[in-house]
Amino acid sequence: MLEIDGVTMAYGDASADPVLEDVNLSVGSGERCMLLGPSGCGKSTLLRAVGGFHAPARGEIRVGGDVVSRPGPDRAFVFQEFDQLFPWKRVLANVAYPLVVNGGKKPQAREKALVHLEMMGLRDAVDKYPHQLSGGMKQRVAIARAMALEPRVLLMDEPFGALDAQTRDRLQEQFRTVTTELGTTVIFVTHSIHEAALIGDSVVVLGGGRPGRVVGRISREHTPAGDRSAVEARLKSMLASAHTAKEDDR
Ligand code: ADP
Ligand code: MG
């Protein structure tokens, strides 16, 4: 569903040091792929490239076989910030609006919005305004809005990073359940080992100084089923090397 093929990302002119170099990644349909790495290693930069907001200096990104060259509703984003909703629209309209903008009919858009809000446990909040919601509820609305678009890839940038621990635990579980049910393909940025092991079908560790590279990867098929602590231990040692080593040096 998603292929990142020899991608180098840089800011500024051609002489600028790249942030990320030669990243290769393949994500299958229905797979939740976590991008894990230390702060500043280029996780958001890579995600924005998949979103079509920032073109690679080298390499190519394909979603469903199509080369990414601009943003589109086939790649929906959820960010960390609580202010990503339209403050002047009620919850239902927040979710339905992008569907209408992308050519949906209003009654069908509201119907679909309702289905996704219900999935996220927000049945009772559909008539509220964002300022009446807790941070956790706002993030659930943002997830429902992104899922309602039925994107080919759902792009998540530390969506639970600003939540309190209890709410975060609950949303991580809920997100896992809903994406499993719908078979959503997900790229999920995190700097939490625990979150990566909990949600990911696969985890790609980025880092290794500047430019950053892929320093390690784990796939669910290659780890004992349900053995999350083993996954966490392996991720921990990969992340330690992410602060220094490059994949080639290992
Ligand atoms: P992460 O999401 O892993 O914390 P980012 O992708 O946000 O990292 O940033 C990676 C690097 O790129 C950092 O060194 C950051 O300072 C730099 N960077 C991010 N955005 C810009 C920008 N708009 N212009 C120049 N440099 C940037
Ligand atoms: Mg980031």
UniProtKB/TrEMBL annotation:
GO terms, molecular function: ATP binding
Entry's transmembrane regions: none
Domain annotation ABC transporter: ranges: 2-233
Keywords: ATP-binding, Nucleotide-binding, Transport
UniProt KW Cell inner membrane keyword: no
Entry superkingdom: Bacteria
CDD domains per UniProt: ABC_NrtD_SsuB_transporters (cd03293)
Annotated SUPFAM superfamilies: P-loop containing nucleoside triphosphate hydrolases
Protein known as: NitT/TauT family transport system ATP-binding protein
Source lineage: Bacteria, Bacillati, Actinomycetota, Actinomycetes, Kitasatosporales
